[in-house]
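Backbone shapes recur. Consider a single case.
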Amino acid sequence: MNENGVSIEVKKLRKSWGPVEVLKEVDFGIEAGGFLTLLGPSGCGKSTLLRLICGLDEVSGGQVLIDGKDVTNKAAAARNLGMVFQNYALFPHMTIKENIAYGLKIRKVPADEKKKQIDRVAELMALRTLLDRRPAQLSGGQQQRVALARVLVSGRPLVLMDEPLSNLDAKLRVEIRSEIRSLNKKLGITIVYVTHDQSEALSMSDRVVLMNAGEVSQIGTPKDLYEHPANTFSATFIGTPPTNILESSEVAFPSNLKITGVQDVSACQFGIRPESLTFPGDDCEFRVKARVQSVEYEGKVFLIHLMTIAGTRMVLSHPGGSVPEEGEEITVGWDRASTHVFLKSDGKAAEIAR
């Protein structure tokens, strides 16, 4: 099995289906052994992008480079990569051992080497006791482990994964995403992972490519995307519950507040994460009055759904203590350090002048 990954670089990649432009000059890269996630809502183009990287679809423009070599026009079989799909794609008539060994058999790997590789990957994926069973006798989580094992045993330095955990329940998703991340670090393989689930992206990735309508909205580490959203789409897509976006006219803020490069604060919107809100917020730098619509108990916190006087919905993540009641009018607040500012004209982030 290959112990080293390869770098990936995508340059101005485009894809059109007739007059419909699905991908619009996408650029990103990941170093060898890295874990990169393509994240975004359904229909944003992330699965199409993965298919272009692996060679299943033809590009309309741009380049795909693997380890510095242009593979844009090469067949999928010539790119030395493996893929894991959402539906597992296991052979139902074969045992688990035969499923894992299928690629090795096609490549005519010698029997002793084949046994050695199967034993190793079975140990890695906790499948040793299941090798004589057939897929129908396994749970969904076990079948996904087999699909991963089949790719890992091939020794490919690059593995592409398209929504591999979406068919699993919440507990299994957490378990297997931890295993995938562990294998990435242990084996040094490069992984490009597609998901619409931001919790998967934030917990697993070295870098995240957040996509929207065929374009890259933001690229960065999970921490970058969470703490420094580049635009309102990033702010509202990353984080649960999402960032509250308020018009400046709704918010009481310091009279001396200046936004870099902006003449009038009214040209901006304020973003604030639910967990950064304070209640009561009468003494905070930034404040807004709102009426409580509903209260949800979430274990550690209460999620308090609010409606501002101007009619904007927002959410307060409240640790407990004094919990406001439905219908009550309250003031919530936050500080300058927790404030995100966005231009109303294009949604891009702006900065508070010091």
Remarks:
- Residues 170-187 form the longest helix (18 residues).
